[in-house]
Design brief:
The chain has helices spanning 9-32, 38-62, 92-115, 122-141, 145-163, 170-201, 206-213, 221-237, 246-249, 255-264, 269-276, 278-282, 285-306, 312-332, 336-363, 381-395, 401-416, 418-443, 451-455, 462-477, 492-505, 516-543, 556-562, 567-615, 621-641, and strands spanning 2-4, 67-79, 82-90. It is mainly α. Among the domains are: 297-562, no CATH class; 570-641. Strands 1-2-3 form a three-stranded mixed sheet. The chain is globular.
C-alpha cells in the first residue's frame, strides 16, 4: 500500500467534511432546535448526512484502491517518545465503511422524517442521530486506536440516549442502561488492549503497530494477550456470547434506531476493529480459534432463540446476533474480506427488514406482536414486497446478495473445517426458517388483530417507502460486488480491499482452494437448503395455518427457547443480584462504619478540642500573664531536668 500525506485542499476538505457535517447538524439542532420547526430540524439533520455521503462518494471516486491517505489535523498527545496525533486515515476499508454508514444512515434519516413526524421529541431524536453518525464516522476514520476509541465510546453514549429515547417508560430506561453497562465491560478489554499496545510498541498508529508486531514471533503471549483483549471489546460492541443480551433489549428504542444500531453502524464496529487489526490477529492463530468458536456458537445459539420469538423486532434482533456470529466465524477463519463483504450485504437487507418492520408497526399503530398480525400483503403491498425480498436475501436465496456473501464464508469453512461448515449451514437453514415464519405470520393468512385496527391499516408515506425500495434494490443486486470465481468474474470487493488485507496473508496458513465443481456443489447445497427451509415454513404456517403456541402451554425445550434459555435470568441471579448485595454490604461496612464513622469521629474530636480550648480564652489579661509565667516556669524546669 502506498501512503501519502496530501496537502491538496480539494481532497482534504471532503475528508474533513465527512464527520464535520453531522457534527454541525448536531450542534445546530442541539443548541437552536427548540427555535426551529420540527420539519426544519428533521431535514437539516438529514441534509447533513446526505452531504457526508456525497463527500464520501467523491473520496471513493478519487482514491485509488492501493492508496492510503492520512489527514493530520493536530498533534494531540506528546510525552517522552510517544506522539499521538488527531488524524484521519482514508483507505479502501475506511471508504467501504463510510459508504455504508453515510449511505444507509441517510436512508434511515429520511425514513425517520416520516416515522417520527408526530413525536413530540423529534428534534431531540434527530440531534441524537446526527451525533451518533458523527461518532461512528470518527470510529472508522481515526488513524490510530485512540481516535477509534473516542468514536467507540461515543456510539456507546449515543446508543444509550437513543435506546432510552422514550425515557418516561422505565423498561426502556432499563434497556438503555443495560446496553451501556454491557458495552462498558467490553470497552474495558479494548482499553487494556490499547495500554498493552502503547506500552510495548510506543505508538497507537495502525501502520506502526502492524509493522512492529510483524517482527514478533507468531502466537507470542504478548500478541495473544493484545488480540484477546481487543476481541473482548469487539464482543461487547458486536453482541457476541456472552455479551449479547443488550442487543435484543435495544429494541426498546424507535425502529429507525434499531435499524441504525443493528444494520450499518454500531454492531459492525467490532468487525471493523478486527479487520483493521488484521495483521495482529493473523499473527495470533490461538485468538483466531477463540473468535471462530465464539462466532459459531453465537450464530447457532441466537438462531435457535429466534425460532420462537413473537415480537417482530425481537426476531430481527436475534437474527442480527446470529449474522454477527457468522461474520466473526469468517474472521476466525482468516477470511477478513469475506467477513466485511457480509457486513455490507447484511447492512442492505437488515436495514430493509428493520425499516420494513417499522412500516408494519406504523400501519398497525404500534402493534409488534406477530400473533396479532396476518393478511397484510394486500393492505401494505410495498412494505410486503420489500420485506419478503430482504427476507429472501438474508435466507441465502440463490443469486441475491446474502447468497453470495454467506456462500463465500461457508466455502472458507468447508476448506478449513468441515464441522464448522456443517454447523454454520444448520444455522443458515434455521435463519431461513424463522425469517419466513415471520413473513408468513405477518403478511399471509387472515388478519388476527381487532376490527378497529384493520380499518385504519394503510401503506406508509413515501418518506418511509422510498428508503425501503432503495434498500430492497441493494439487497437484490449487492452480491454483484463479490461474485465467486466459478462465475469467472473479478471479486470486486476482495480486490478493492486487498491492499488492507494482503499483509495478513503472510501469517495465515494457506489452505488449498476448493475446485470449481466443489464450489458449485456447495452453492447448490446452500441454495437448496434455503429453499427447503422456506418451503417447510410455508407448509407449517400457511398450508396448515399453525399459529405460535401460548407461552403458558409450552414445555421442555420449547419453553427454554421461548424464554431465551433463561440467560437474562441467569445473569440477574449470578451477576446483578450479587452485585446489589455486595453494594449494600459495602454501603453498610465501608461507607457507614468506616468512612462515615471516621469522618464523624474526626469532626467530634475537633469539636471537643475546640470546646476545651475555648475554656482558656477568657479575655482576662491577668490570667493570660499568669499562664505565660507558669509556662515559662514549666519550660525552665524541663530544661533544668534535661
Amino acid at each position: 500500500m502506498t501512503e501519502q500525506i496530501l496537502h491538496d485542499s480539494a481532497f482534504i476538505m471532503p475528508g474533513i467534511l465527512i464527520p464535520l457535517l453531522p457534527l454541525i447538524g448536531f450542534l445546530i439542532n442541539g443548541l437552536f432546535g427548540k427555535y426551529l420547526p420540527k420539519a426544519a430540524a428533521s431535514w437539516l439533520a438529514t441534509s447533513a448526512i446526505l452531504g457526508s455521503f456525497l463527500c464520501t462518494v467523491y473520496v471513493f471516486m478519487n482514491l485509488n484502491a492501493a492508496d492510503s491517505v492520512t489527514i493530520d489535523l493536530f498533534q494531540w498527545i506528546a510525552f517522552s517518545k510517544v506522539n499521538i496525533g488527531f488524524s484521519f486515515l482514508i483507505d479502501p476499508l475506511t471508504v467501504v465503511m463510510l459508504l455504508v454508514i453515510t449511505g444507509i444512515g441517510f436512508l434511515i434519516h429520511l425514513y425517520s422524517i416520516g416515522y417520527m413526524h408526530d413525536d413530540e421529541g423529534v428534534t431531540r431524536f434527530f440531534t441524537y442521530l446526527n451525533l451518533f453518525i458523527f461518532f461512528m464516522l470518527l470510529l472508522v476514520m481515526g488513524s490510530n486506536y485512540l481516535v477509534m476509541f473516542i468514536g467507540w465510546e461515543g456510539v456507546g453514549l449515543c446508543s444509550y440516549l437513543l435506546i432510552g429515547f422514550w425515557f418516561k417508560n422505565d423498561a426502556y430506561n432499563n434497556a438503555a442502561k443495560k446496553a451501556f453497562v454491557m458495552n462498558r465491560i467490553g470497552d474495558l478489554g479494548f482499553l487494556l488492549g490499547m495500554f498493552f499496545i502503547l506500552f510495548n510498541f510506543g505508538t497507537l498508529e495502525y501502520g506502526a503497530v502492524a509493522e512492529q508486531a510483524s517482527k514478533l514471533t507468531p502466537n507470542s503471549m504478548l500478541l495473544v494477550a493484545i488480540t484477546l483483549l481487543l476481541f473482548v471489546g469487539a464482543m461487547g460492541k458486536s453482541a457476541q456470547l456472552p455479551l449479547y443480551t443488550w442487543l435484543p433489549d435495544a429494541m426498546a428504542g424507535p425502529t429507525p434506531v434499531s435499524a441504525l444500531i443493528h444494520a450499518a453502524t454500531m454492531v459492525t464496529a467490532g468487525i471493523y476493529m478486527v479487520v483493521r487489526s488484521n495483521v495482529l490477529f493473523a499473527m495470533a492463530p490461538h485468538t483466531l480459534d477463540v473468535i471462530l468458536i465464539v462466532g459459531v456458537a453465537t450464530s447457532v445459539f441466537a438462531a435457535v432463540i429466534g425460532l420462537m420469538q413473537n415480537d417482530i423486532k425481537k426476531v430481527l434482533a436475534y437474527s442480527t446476533v446470529s449474522q454477527l456470529g457468522l461474520m466473526f466465524a469468517a474472521l476466525g477463519l482468516g477470511a477478513f474480506s469475506s467477513g466485511m463483504f457480509h457486513v455490507v450485504t447484511h447492512a442492505f437487507f437488515k436495514a430493509c427488514l428493520f425499516l420494513g418492520s417499522g412500516s408494519v408497526i406504523h400501519a398497525l399503530h404500534g402493534e409488534q406482536d406477530i400473533r396479532k398480525m396476518g393478511g397484510l400483503k394486500k393492505l401494505i403491498p410495498i412494505t410486503y414486497l420489500t420485506f419478503i425480498t430482504a427476507s429472501f436475501a438474508i435466507s441465502g436465496f440463490p443469486l441475491l446478495s446474502g447468497f453470495f456473501s454467506k456462500d463465500e464464508i461457508l466455502a472458507h469453512a468447508f476448506e478449513q473445517n468441515k464441522l464448522v461448515w456443517g454447523i454454520l449451514s444448520i444455522s443458515s437453514m434455521i435463519t431461513a426458517f424463522y425469517m419466513f415464519r415471520l413473513v408468513y405470520l405477518t403478511f399471509f393468512g387472515t388478519f388476527r388483530g381487532t376490527d378497529e385496527t384493520k380499518k385504519h391499516i394503510h401503506e406508509s408515506p413515501i418518506t418511509i417507502t422510498l428508503p425501503l425500495i432503495a434498500l430492497c434494490i441493494l439487497s437484490v443486486f449487492g452480491g454483484i460486488l463479490g461474485l465467486p470465481s466459478v462465475f469467472h468474474a473479478t471479486h470486486l470487493f476482495a480486490t478493492y480491499l486487498s491492499s488492507v488485507t494482503e499483509p495478513s496473508k503472510a501469517f495465515l496458513y494457506e489452505h488449498e482452494a476448493i475446485s470449481h465443481s466443489a464450489e458449485l456443489m456447495l452453492m447448490a447445497f446452500a441454495g437448496i437448503a434455503a429453499i427447503a427451509s422456506i418451503w417447510f415454513a410455508y407448509q407449517k404456517y400457511v398450508t396448515k395455518g399453525e399459529q405460535p403456541a401460548d407461552e403458558a402451554s409450552l414445555t421442555g425445550l420449547n419453553k427454554w427457547i421461548s424464554n431465551k434459555f433463561y440467560v437474562d435470568e441467569l445473569y440477574d441471579k449470578a451477576v446483578v443480584k450479587p452485585m446489589l448485595v455486595l453494594s449494600d454490604l459495602f454501603m453498610v461496612v465501608v461507607d457507614k462504619l468506616i468512612i462515615d464513622l471516621s469522618v464523624n469521629a474526626i469532626a467530634w474530636f475537633v469539636g471537643l478540642t475546640g470546646r476545651i480550648t475555648r475554656l482558656f480564652q477568657t479575655g482576662n489579661t491577668g490570667f493570660y500573664i499568669f499562664a505565660m509565667v507558669l509556662s515559662m516556669v514549666v519550660l525552665f524546669v524541663i530544661r533544668l531536668l534535661a
